[in-house]
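Entry 14. Two folds queued back to back today. First construct below, sequence then structure tokens.
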Amino acid sequence: MPVSRILVADDDVAVLESVTWLLQENGYEVIPANGGMACLEQLEKRAPDLLLLDILMPDADGCQLLERIKSEERWRDLPVLMLSAQPPEEASVRSLGLGAADFIRKPYRPKELLARVQVQLRTGAMLRSTRMALVRTEEALVRAQQDADSRRKLVDILHEVTGDLSVTELFHLLVRRAARALGVSHCSVVLARPGDAQAVVVAAFENLGLQHLTIQLDRYPELKAALESGQPVLVEDLDTHPLYEGVRHVWGIEGIEVPIRSVIALPFTVDRGQYGVFLVRRTRDQDRFGPHDLEFAQAVITAAVAVIQRAQMVESTMADNARLEQLAQTDPLTQLLNRRALTERITAEMERALRYDSTMALLMIDLDHFKKVNDTYGHLVGDDVLRDVGRLLLDTIRGSDIVARYGGEEFLLLLPETDEAGAVSFAERVRAAVDEYEFARGGEHPPLKLTASIGVAVFPAARIENVEDLFSRADAALYRAKADGRNRVRQ
């Protein structure tokens, strides 16, 4: 398997060397570029699989460089991951709007950077593969368009389904467009795996409101044959085709009159092991299907699968990005917000407090003598206690409040629209809740009892101008609570 090639452009030599070393240690081929001009020189030599680009460089504005790169056809599909020390709300919106694939803030976390690199490399490879498939399909369609009128109908179908639609929307769109192009009244997409006894109809032209109808495959021999052989099935006449011999017998016994005369079943597979059949049928008052119809239907499904794969790629990428963002903001032990995520919330809340002349409060909570828990009962019990504290705090707060883990045995509570008296009263309620709680140790062991010290800081206040000032004020109050004997609230 070829090694992925990554171009890293940054004017900070320390950052450039550290990112280069990290990526090389994880098996990537890395080309370092010290600045924007060096980045362009390397791109001219050979396009990489991924570009890591700093936003602020003395010899080039990273966003302007990104705009130039994305304006050239040869680099259109190159995924670009932007690096910046600027706040996300300032840098990410601009860079993503210019075509960046992702944004990561400095100082970066190695695991997060590697995860985002892996996602973008995988996405880039899928995009290139899908684009090549679409190019091949479009070339085939151009040739087919010169032969017959039906090919022009196919172009109309593909033109409509190449938008950014979900997979479910694509299925419904395809059955409508294909049914009209083929001149049929029955067209559906059926999902099943070879060997399954049942299948699910996810879209049907004859019943546009239908969703996820389960059918028995024994009743549809053309579907079973297409799934098991992986080959298209053309049935020109149900009344004479040997595939329906057993089913015709059942129809006779049950007195069923089938209005369908002719069938085409085209099997397909898409990413993530999804199997299905594109099924088109004509009734007895319509012309039978022939080899020409089968050829056209095959062209439709071949192109449709390429588009569906693209839609799945987009959905997968969005899900990956959402998971990465969640990981970047969440404490892995308690599943609460981490300090980084809370800092962003506090910044927004401080701006809101100033704008609307309101107040807010920050509570810094520290479990007293928590080290004894780990030393006496082990870190597994300690972890359970921290998770219980997180849940206890979530149960105690109001809907507008926010809980985060600060680190170790320290937690933070952000209380919007709360003055000093309200914050102290709320802190006393939290302190009492921890004091009264019985932390289970598992089995028949007696529960643990713990206490907490809490520091309170409010904003606006003198000498508090930013988030770090607010943290420092709460930390100083917490220190006084500890010094005064613990299990108390101070401000």
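Second construct, same run, same settings:
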Amino acid sequence: MSLLFYISSIVAILATIMVITRHQPIHALLYLVVSFMAISMIFLSLGAPFSAVLEVIVYAGAIIVLFIFVVMMLNLDKETALQEKKWLQPKVWIGPSILALVLLIEMILLLLEPPSEKMLVTVVTPRQVALSLYGEYIIAVELGGFLLMTGIVGAAHIGKHTKRNLHRFLQNNH
């Protein structure tokens, strides 16, 4: 169990470093998905399967789809379409694919391993998670929702503007 934990941790750290250092937003999002999956594997190796599933559904699923939607809204010109064709080259997706393959092999090994007496699994029901989130942490959950909504509205507003306004001293008056 500890070896799988360390492998997941290394994959999460590498993927997160790649998220920070990528120049293209789509490349960063691919590595962010791998990072979230690695964190999910960390939860699974520690005996928290419900937290692992929540990590995949909420972060690797919903949040990444939201980020990709915003990136798609902001890229509206023909040059971007040509650039996206370049992004589909194997050199772009081979890194995230290798890291995801490591996580898949690790998950298979973890699921095939017999349960250990050292690992005490505490069962957390969805009801307990809901009571925790919407009980004492309701303000944080609501603020997170407002923050996501503000980001979407801001991205939509920026995506609509095609005209560039320059100050009168910056314009060429020939």
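Quick look at the second one. The domain at 2-122 is CATH 1.20.120.1200 (Four Helix Bundle (Hemerythrin (Met), subunit A)). The chain has a mean pLDDT of 79.
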